[in-house]
Write a structure and sequence with these properties.
With 79 residues, this protein is mainly alpha-helical. It is built from 2 helices and no strands.
Length: 79
């Protein structure tokens, strides 16, 4: 596949500006960006096949373990 050279890119950009107009290009680019973002999210969803990854699982609340009854709890000393 041959990539376009510099003058071909300039010609392509000029044709796009003539077709759409300079005022509509930012809106068109924004729409393309949104579409690509949605497409990327959907393809990622298809590849995941509904399986959740370990880092996506909800975190379990940490249970505080009480001190054993035969040992006294450590005392706090203020400095």
């Amino acid at each position: 596949m041959n990539l376009p050279r510099g003058w071909e890119l300039v010609l392509l950009v000029a044709v796009i500006v003539l077709l759409f107009g300079a005022k509509r290009l930012p809106d068109a680019a924004r729409g393309v960006g949104r579409s690509l973002r949605i497409f990327k999210a959907e393809t990622k969803g298809l590849t995941d096949d509904g399986e959740s990854k370990p880092d996506e699982l909800p975190a379990a609340p940490e249970a505080s373990t009480p001190a054993p009854k035969d040992e006294p709890a450590p005392e706090r000393t203020e400095s």
